[in-house]
């Protein structure tokens, strides 16, 4: 009789299911022509005794229990270990509990189908790493019913050296977003795709934290703008001031811009004169900025002070009262 | 192996009741090791409980239980855990089954965290085959705690998972005549 030796283990097979085990048991059962006269006790050895026990030889049912105890980041680490672990993590439910607003909750990209309905009463922060965005976007694309994720703020976290990729554009398409915050270098080709999106055009605020060389026009529709630019021309600076001053609003503090530049700004060329009293109040480290208070023609009783210095110019809608300087500073985070 | 006397710290009934004498049976591992255990401890395993019940129903004397898929070392750990928990309410383990966060008692934490990862996986696998809910809960939670915050590389090392190019293809035959 030939001896059947099970090489490897049940647990090490990719995406093991109960059907796999049944198939395995079916295969291990001796065929009628192989059954010896004295039939030995059939014993299904789940693993070879000499085989070291590792994660891979652990039953899938147990792996699922372990994954259930893991937090989002650990799950993401595990799903990058191997294809079978990716399938394992993707097929393990991950629940987001909307009851708490204090701690960040992390959905796995692929457990998106198990998202609960999140009540509007709580604020929940969801973090998805860029690798997982690819998978999540793919799933969203493949979903027959169009899905839109309503969110207040989309923050692409990154570093100056980490470029914004096309995946962000793809993912943004599925968001109904009010505020967009982008870190890192944004290549012009990606930027041009991004500004074509409805999500961009409808956004309330846009922030680019790191220095980029981008045209100013696509940013002018927002109410709150924070930009870091390589440089800004006199014409663009004038355009920014003109657009923001002419915006129609009722409430102070809801319109503002804050633009930092790498290259010095020739601010004296677009600010006609300086309010010396305000300039003194807004001075930092002894350097007096140039400050000009502009009337907002479309917003009753509001003014728009614009402050400029070597590498910064900013402004916001304020009430013309005793607290103007404090409100200006607070709104712009000065 | 004589059962441990671990009831010293447990609350004793105010009026001493005539307790039933411990019913000790032999348990044989897959590699032939014979251990001894209190039946109450073995009842934590649904698999063994069914076997014991079968013997009792037929009034057969139960002398030796064969556990064919757990090696001696692991079986010893399983029995040690069961002995410690033989008086636990099984409903507690069942209630914790679907919870995301469970509290691991001090004794269990020390018992499980001292084990190398390989033995821990062995213990979990044994608990799975023997269907011991409480041990599955605590064992899996301990593994998860060890893995928390680890990077992919650290997790690969912790779990003994080879690099993708080192892994044999599972699409080819795994049987050898």
Automatic annotation (TrEMBL), chain A:
Residues annotated as domain DUF38: 191-272
Segments forming domain F-box: 59-96
Pfam families (alphabetical): F-box (PF00646), FTH (PF01827)
Name of the protein in question: Protein CBG01231
Organism: Caenorhabditis briggsae
Automatic annotation (TrEMBL), chain B:
Gene Ontology MF term list: cullin family protein binding
Residues spanning the membrane: none
Superkingdom as given in the UniProt entry: Eukaryota
SKP1 component dimerisation domain mapped to chain residues: 134-163
Domain SKP1 component POZ: 24-86
Keyword field: Ubl conjugation pathway
Region (Disordered): 1-21
InterPro entries: SKP1, SKP1-like, SKP1-like_dim_sf, SKP1/BTB/POZ_sf, Skp1_comp_dimer, Skp1_comp_POZ
GO biological process: protein ubiquitination; SCF-dependent proteasomal ubiquitin-dependent protein catabolic process
Record pathway: Protein modification; protein ubiquitination
Gene Ontology CC: one annotated term: cytoplasm
Family in the record: Belongs to the SKP1 family.
Biological function: Probable essential component of SCF (SKP1-CUL1-F-box protein) E3 ubiquitin-protein ligase complexes, which mediate the ubiquitination and subsequent proteasomal degradation of target proteins. Regulates cell proliferation during embryonic and larval development.
Protein name in UniProt: Skp1-related protein
Annotated source species: Caenorhabditis briggsae
Gene assigned in the entry: skr-17
